[in-house]
Amino acid sequence: MNQNKVAEVKNLIRNYGPRGFQTKVLKGIDLTVYQNDFIAIMGPSGSGKTTLLNILSTIDRPSQGTVMLGEQDIAGLSNKELSRLRRDKIGFIFQDYNLLDTMTLQDNIALPLSLNGVSGGECVRKAQELASMFGLSEHLKKYPWQLSGGQKQRGAACRALITDPEIIFADEPTGALDSRSGRELLECLKRVNERGQATILMVTHDPFCASWARDVYVLSDGLIRCRISAGAQRREFYDRIIEVQTSMGGDFS
Amino acid sequence: MRMTGLAFMNFRNSFKNCLSLVASLAFTIVIFLNFQNLIYSDALIQLGEKNKRNMDTVIQVISIVLVCFMFFFIWYSTNVFLTRRKKEIGIYIFMGLTNQRIGKMYMIETALIGLSALGFGIFFGIVTTGLFQMILLSLSELAVEISFRPVFTPVLVTALAYLAIYVIFVIKGYVDIVRSSVLSMLTGARQNEYVRQSRALLFLRALAGVAVLASGFYLAVKKGGPEVLENAVGAVVLVILGVYLLFGGLLPLVFQWVAGNKRFLYRRERCLWVNNMIFRMKKNYRTWAMVCVLVLCSVTALATGFAARMRYENMEKFEKVYTFQLLSDQSDLDERARKLIEESTQIAYSSFLPITTLSESQIRTTTRYTGYALTSYSALRELAREAHLDFDLTEPGAQEYIKVSNVILFSLYTDVTAETAEIEGKVFRQTQRTQAPYLGYLQQRHITLFVLGDQEYEKMRSIGKQLYIYNYSIADPNAFVSAREALGELVAQTDDYYVGRVSVDPLSDGERNWVKVLYSLCVFMFMVFILASASIMFMKLYNDSFEERERYLIMEKMGFDAGALGRSIGKELAVAYALPLLVMGVASYFSVHALQMVMSADLGMIHLVSVLVVVTVFLVCYGLSVMVYRRNAGV
Fold it and tell me: What gap in Å lies between CA B39 and CA B55, rounded to an integer?
């Protein structure tokens, strides 16, 4: 495994609410993400997985603890610097795709690159290359409303990958997809991860979805309760996740 | 719940959203009512019968323009409203409502909006009529007593005109909904703004637009006779149609080309703003075309106003060149007349011109005039010298003449050299035309002078009656009455020899006050059109910005640079404001040029100033729009 740290969280605490009435959502998380990792964060509702993702992706700020993205501690960064960090180092895949319905799929994929000032030719080349990798070459000229959910989510993944981000954060990427579309997306993500093209951190409640990752961290009550690493067989990995889920109880939906 | 109740509830709940629609409709009613009120109120009667009659004609013409404006404005705003509501009311389909019932609900809702707008419009219209008249008349520098009593007829006319137009579009909306498929109603907001047509069709449309516009421009500047009026009407229709076709064909074509050319498209923010524009292309090009026509109207209105004002001042100057003019068959009256005037005041300057008058049977011209006279080139040059008037005419050759005519507000004859005159069977060609006031009031009202070369005049002078014109301008305008009385002695002897006299009181007001009002009305129309076009642009972009909020939120979440998003908004809005201005810039050149010919006035500077005013207003609006857009979109 390549030991370059992409993200590191130490004693991460996140409180919400006014002083004296605070709710502790994250109670001291320690997590290190290395280059080319494929991590799934699982946990019951209210366990803090989305909060963790939001903080890691710089959309939210921690109450205590340190969050390093590459060499940078996000605590001391201004909003503008955070925005630049998101643009340069992070790719996002949202549950509801968030493709812009004003433009075609190709334009959606190429947009982050073109906004970064990359030449038109390079944008076209990379967009087409990624679209081909995700089986979307036929749909590049279509608008989002002309695409199926699975195609949209694969398009969103292409968009997240086009800037070669250091890490991709995926928030319930298969949440709005049927099982076949979900599988297609995960296959694609797995492929790019195995080719060494992406480090992925994914939040999901779905053990099937989590079983495509290499490591699964199970969160409960604001703390990481266990880490499950994949073996040779995905089926066996899936069974172990289910086992842990059952032993912990709670609502994982 | 009954349909009416549901519609009423919708109307009440979404009143805040409809406010811009109600306000804009009410605005058109206020404007229309104010103009109608001018016809029926007694303010203009005080300006005299002739002024009132002319003013009424002008206001009727403006009313027709305003009705057209109201028609397009209601069309546009109800269309925007329908598109916005379609998706929302489409949800009722899942409640088992038929298209007809949804259409009915839409009709009730829009009727409520229309009636509230009418109520507000009439109320504010009545409240502002007095103020409007006051501003208008003070701008016209006229002292007239204004009553603030509301008059019923203009209210009725306004309400009827507005309702007639509004009902058409309410019914159109109903038919539109009844004919819509369920899917199109639900996805309408997402798809239907994109212009989906083949490139060939768009190209043909753009080509037709250019051809129609070019024909309109040609008609506008074509010189001619009475057909100029028909040409002008034709030009207006063709320019409106051409602008619409051009925007509807060329813009989708160009933007689609840009969107297809990815290497060109993927340059910084271009991908974002170009796609945003394409997404709403249908709404965009319709708005731009409408704004372009409105701005064109505003520039033309201002140019008309200024031209009218300039003409008025010229005409006034024309009549006041001389205080007294004597027309006699005696060539030796000057000394006696001079003596009589100088009993009361000094003579500032005087002049003299021998003429040969012709009867109507002796001369045939392209246009009919009130009186015909011949004079020689040298005699006129001498008169110009005596009266300190400019003289830059060249002596006509054999069978040529220079026409010295009056100044009128509008002349349909725009081709100066096409006129000929047949004098005693001999055809003369016009080489020049001048409207310099060599013969003052007589020239303005009674005599059209045909200036011949000296030799030609010598040959022709015997064909008519020889008369002499004596012109005097007094130094002290207050001595007018006494000088006039003194001159009466000469006029009284008309039994012995013929003496006609013209007296123009230097201190009197003319009968052309209506031209001053016309000027103010044109300035007012300019402001109405410019405000309307700027507010249409602003309103459209304001609504767009709310639709964009979600998209910009996504982009911000993804870490897209806020500066880049801001620049994208700036560019998108700049193009939106610049396109109508660009086409208007070209079109207004032709409209002002046409006006220049009809009114024989140099409007170059006025054109430039009015375009600059429009550009300034648009720049301010642009700045505001960018600010509001960024705020609403959360950038």
Answer: 8
Q: How far apart are CA B103 and CA B111, in angstroms?
A: 12
Say if B508 falls within a structural domain: no
Could you tell me the maximum CA-CA distance found in chain A, to the nearest angstrom? 57
Domain boundary among the residues B157, B192, B227 is at B192
Residues contacting B174, CB < 8 A, separation 6+? B103, B104, B106, B107
Separation in Å, CA of A24 to nearest CA in chain B: 24
- Given B263, B266, B559, which is nearest A86 (Cβ)? B559
B585-619 pLDDT, tens digit each: 888 888 888 877 777 667 888 888 888 888 998 99
In Å, how far is B268's CA from the nearest CA of chain A?
Answer: 4
Q: How far apart are CA B139 and CA B173, in angstroms?
A: 42
pTM flag (> 0.90): no
Count the helix, strand and coil residues of chain B and give each as a percent rounded to the nearest 5. Answer: 70, 10, 20
Q: How far apart are CA B269 and CA B567, in angstroms?
A: 7
- Å between B148 CA and nearest CA of chain A: 53
B582 φ/ψ angles, rounded to the nearest 5 degrees: -60, -50
- Give the pLDDT confidence of A127-156 residue by residue, as tens digits: 999 999 888 999 999 988 889 888 999 999
Query: Among partner residues B262, B276, B564, which is closest to A115 by beta-carbon distance?
Result: B564
Q: Kindly provide the ipTM of the predicted complex, given to two decimals.
A: 0.80
What amino acid occupies position B314? N
Number of neighbours of residue A230 by Cβ within 10 angstroms = 20
B162-194 residues labelled b (16+ CB within 10 A) or e (exposed): beebbeebbeebbebbeebeeeebbebbeebbb
Assigned domain for B461 exists: yes
**3-state secondary structure at position A184:** helix
Residue type, A194: E
Ordered by where they begin, the domains of chain A are 5-248 (3.40.50.300)
Distance CA B286, CA B288 (A): 6
Residue B405, SS3? coil
Note whether B190 contacts A101, CB cutoff 8 Å: yes
